Amino acid sequence: MKRLILLAAVAFMLGGCRYDADVVSENLSVAADSFEITRRIVFYNGITGEYMLTIEGLCSLGNNDSAGRLSVTCKTGPTEYKKNFLGLSDNVTYFVEQVDASPASPYRYRVVFKPLSVVPDIDIQK
To answer: Which pLDDT does position 105 carry in this prediction?
Structure first.
C-alpha cells in the first residue's frame, strides 16, 4: 500500500512539472477549440508561391484528421458553423496565425465541461 501511495505521489509530481509555455499553449488550444480565438489559416502552394485559400474567423482545426487531410470548423453565428475539408500534398502546405492576443494562465489548466454534450440530440431518419 505504501508503494502504491509513493508511486502515485511521484507520478503526480512528475505530471505537474510542466513549463509555463506548455500550460499556456494547451489553454490557448482549448480556447480555439471553443471558438474563442480568431485565426487565419492560409493554404500555400510551395511550387508557385501563391496562396490558394485563406480562411479567417473563429476556427478550430481538426484534431483527428488523417494524413494529407485537414478539416477546419468555423463558427459563423451564435448557432451556425461551417466545416471545410482540405487535401494536403507534398507541395501544398498551410499555416495558422492567431490574429489577436488572448489571455491564458500559465498556472491553471483550463477544462471545459459541457453537460449538454453528454445527452445526445437524436434525429430519426426514414
So the answer is: 81
Q: Where are the alpha helices (DSSP H) in the chain?
A: 2-15, 20-33
- Beta-carbon contacts of 57 under 8 Å, excluding residues fewer than 6 positions away, are 38, 39, 74, 75, 76
C-alpha cell at 82: 461551417
What values do phi and psi take at 53, rounded to 5?
A: -160, 140
104 vs 101: CA distance, rounded Å = 9
Q: Are 72 and 59 in contact (CB under 8 A)?
A: yes
Residues of the chain with pLDDT under 70: 1-2, 4-17, 116-118
What CA–CA distances, in Å, run from 71 to 6, 55, 96?
Answer: 43, 12, 13
User: In angstroms, how far is the first alpha carbon of the chain from the final one?
Assistant: 57
Nearest-CA neighbor of 27 among 14, 40, 36?
36
Amino acid residing at 91: N
- CA trace torsion 44, 34, 74, 77 (10° rounding): -150
